[in-house]
Amino acid sequence: MGILSGKRGLIMGVANERSAAWGIAAAAASHGAELAFTYQIEGFRKRLEPLAASIGSSLLIECDVAEDGAIAKSFAELSTSWDSLDFVVHAIGFSDKSELKGAYYNTSRQNFADTMLVSAFSFTEVAAAARKMMPNGGSLLTMSYLGGVRTSPNYNVMGVAKAALEASTRYLAVDLGGENIRVNTLSAGPMRTLAGSAITGARHIFRHSEKHAPLGRNPDIEEVGRAGVYLLSDLSSGVTGELHYVDGGYHHIGVPSEDVE
Ligand code: 0WE
User: Fold this and answer.
1) Rounded alpha-carbon distances, angstroms, from residue 231 to 22, 42, 196
2) Which of 87, 132, 162, 244 is placed for a possible disulfide with 232 were both Cys, Cβ 3.0 to 4.6 Å?
């Protein structure tokens, strides 16, 4: 028995065992949830299969959110196995790497549109599809980063997309509140994931955040996972539209104390 016992959830965005989405999936499974996963392309399925198997899941569905109609199709496929759904974790974002450096004003029209579509709009499409499988309410969770609220070097158009994603969370919370579907964002501090590794200046961001965070460190995927479980479970039944930071308190700091150089 666990706080997610009897609940079914869909996890979107596991690339490997270091992914934030995997941290949430593993924690959710350990609290009793039954899970299904989506993957972007065949190559990711191979890596996902053993991870999913380790928590007793074999329900893996292809979903490249950049493709028109892919989200509706994936939920239709899910509905042939499950007649209802209790939660969804959306941990998907992408931008052209060449634009995650230098000046934000160099963002191209095409990459602005692509980044917004994949990193922000896809969550709105997920909400529209998921609600049809949530007759008794549910919980939708997406992932953000402080770069959506404040500037962070090189994060650029991803920060603009995260701002849109966080605003989408608030609008969706209003749209879906009457259906008892809650919608929240988890904003994690920097982690050594695939998404955060190949990044210009990653080491600076990582070190700066851990040095100035009240807890003196960045989060790991296990604690992101546990906070995710809270937001997905009935423990957070009164919480919606919320932006919840799991960053060791970093975002509260204006002027760091003098003893931290
Ligand atoms: O949201 C993210 C990752 C976003 C991301 C990462 C990549 C790397 C590879 C989006 N698109 C791509 N495209 C690629 O080709 N994070 C919160 C992690 C992250 O990414 C950054 C960061 C941090 C932190 C990018 C620049 C500066 C800081």
Assistant:
1) 16, 30, 23
2) 87
